[in-house]
Design brief:
5-stranded mixed sheet; globular; 13 strands; alpha/beta; 11 helices
Length: about 325
Amino acid sequence: MSEPFRIGTRSSVMALAQTDEVARALEAAWADILPEIVRFTPQGDRDLTARLDAHGGKGGAFVAEIRAAMLRGEIEAAMHSLKDMPGDEETPGLVAAAYLTRGSAADALVLRPGVMLAAFEQAKGSGFRIGTDSVRRAAFLRRLYPQAEIIHYRGAADTRVRKLDEGALQKLPVGAPVGPADALVMAAAGLKRVGLEARIARAFSPDEMLPSAGQGIVAVECPGDAWETRRRLAAIDDRQARVEALAERETLWVLNGHCHSPIGAHATLKGERMRLKAAVLSLDGREIIEAESEGAIDRPRELGRAVALELLAGGALALIEKSRF
């Protein structure tokens, strides 16, 4: 007889698509498991106007309520986009028991219908409004397109694209709405998961826009003492995604990076070696401190720590402190 296995998730189209991936992987690995998707609508999805710091950052906005339900025993596990899990804090009693095979880590440009990529690039963004809710993307955009207007733009992936196409204004917590946007910058992996991959006008290389730590990785979290659940989830864990995640997130941990820190980190594997590049930017994108190193893939945290310490030695802490508001 199949055992119910409750997986908590946000209710967005993308979150449900990601959780379906988890459920299918579990069903393929264990014939006696019956995955059940339990939907949540956390604060960050209920309030699409306020900046994320009003809800305690990404952790408070997107994962805290689901984690609390898991600790109460209402669900066995929870699905998170790894980039939504705060890198400067941990929740006692919970572990990331599985990482799914990583999708694209790249950031992607999505254009409003009628806007041509050639014209956008030729103008270097001049006269265009680009929407994002990520301070990291905004900082890189100010380096790539210094003449563009970067505007605050929030919502689930499919909702943001719909608002872009409709020419909708973005409400702000204070002041008049902004927009409409001419372009958005979003995670390429997320666009693919919601069936909007065709809207990608261009994907930025890591040299142009260093991805967020964990971008493109789906993590499955569960209570640390739930040994049977951990055993089940271990069967769907992807080794490459795990070591990349551990290296990138160790960098965030050492930097004490928060959701308003313009920090990027991206690991790549070649055989049994891993290269990690990370960067910290000023909010206006004018200053950037970068570090890169290589190490054995069986010591990902050591590599992440080494790169973070190099960034700190280069003055990254001052930029991070300036970004706190």
